[in-house]
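Running this now, will post back.
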Amino acid sequence: MRGRGSDRGFSLIELMVVVAILSILALVVVPRVMDRPDQARIARARTDLASLAAALDLYRLDNFAYPTTEQGLAALVARPALPPVPPAWAANGYVDRVPKDPWGGDYQYLAPGVHGPYDIFSFGADGATGGAGVNADIGTWMLN
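Update: finished.
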């Protein structure tokens, strides 16, 4: 025969203590995890900007100039038809495609740029100039 004590489950008090501990943990952890998607988008935008900047530098090495603002970042994917036509454009291009920013917008390109020989930037989550936090503009001038 088994003793009565071995068939017992958890008491209501024990279950309430476990639920209380899990609730406290959730209150501490959830706020820290909730802002991670925004941080990940910003990190991805910076990575995209760095890879586009590297592709632009290769373009310049081959063609002695950066693409014009009118030619845009598309000049990294397909040979520009607008003048000045690059004399030594790479046969396979410099990138497979120009990525969208993490919020679904297009990366903006200016040559010459305000902050350097070119500027590549995203308007952030709001898609508008300026802003703060996730709505702030993110550009190549912020990479250094």
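Helices lie at 12-34, 36-63. More later if anyone needs it.
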